[in-house]
Specification:
240 residues; two-stranded antiparallel ribbon; 11 helices; elongated
Length: 240
């Protein structure tokens, strides 16, 4: 498990999954079968979304920018849908902010629509973390963050740095979504590894004992709690 985790870290840092030869070298002397090595190889493969180019995504509140690989086809389609919303000139948007802090509720909806463009651009900086399948939900989280921030500004009665505050609200909402998505993915990956471990342990003990091992025997061999084993065994039964 420690070796597997270190290979994951290398993959995440380099952006490239280890080759079958590299996996064999890493686990040399541990007696892994070809089937086990193949499983580890497949496990370490991360789906690569089709990318068209590298864009410089400017991050609000930062002095510079960083390269972000994005799927331009997705953003083109998304922004085409946004084109139905008329873009306002800076002065028109400024008037909306004045209406907002004076308590005009209609300004919240109008500004939310205007910020949909900006949120889509801000999402470029975080989309690689969740993948294209989650991109729409990521952007939606950013839009919700902006809407809630606008609600807090409604009737505020004083001017603030609207661009900075709303960009921060969008980015923080998207960061929370990324963290939750990655935590869920890590949990799924961990379960996948444990399921493979239990499967191999089950086969090995069955050969040694000439019968199916009990949950207690599996628990002692894999060092997994019996309650956790029950869930994993249930998953393996579903796959059969």
């Amino acid at each position: 498990m420690k070796i597997l985790r270190s290979l994951e870290e290398i993959r995440n840092t380099s952006g490239t999954a280890p080759t079958k030869k590299e996996i064999a070298v890493s686990f040399k002397g541990m007696g892994l079968t070809k089937q086990q090595q193949e499983f580890i190889y497949e496990y370490l493969q991360r789906p690569q979304e089709e990318t068209v180019g590298i864009q410089e995504a400017s991050l609000s509140g930062e002095t510079g920018s960083r390269p972000v690989i994005v799927n331009e086809a997705f953003f083109k389609k998304y922004t085409e849908n946004l084109n139905k919303i008329p873009r306002l000139a800076p002065k028109e948007e400024e008037l909306l902010y004045e209406r907002l802090i004076s308590g005009d509720k209609e300004a919240v909806q109008s500004l939310s629509e205007q910020w949909a463009y900006k949120v889509a651009e801000l999402a470029r900086a975080q989309i690689m973390a969740v993948g294209e399948k989650e991109a729409a939900d990521l952007i939606q989280e950013g839009n919700i963050g902006v809407f809630l921030a606008l609600q807090q500004m409604l009737g505020l009665g004083k001017k603030v740095d609207f661009g900075k505050e709303l960009a921060r609200a969008a980015e923080e909402a998207m960061e929370r979504y990324v963290q939750k998505t990655m935590a869920d993915a890590d949990m799924d990956q961990s379960l996948l590894v444990k399921a493979a471990l239990v499967y191999e342990a089950q086969k090995f003990l069955a050969e040694q004992l000439q019968r199916l091992p009990s949950a207690t025997e599996l628990s002692q061999y894999t060092r997994l709690p019996e309650t956790e084993l029950d869930n994993i065994l249930a998953i393996l039964d579903e796959k059969k």
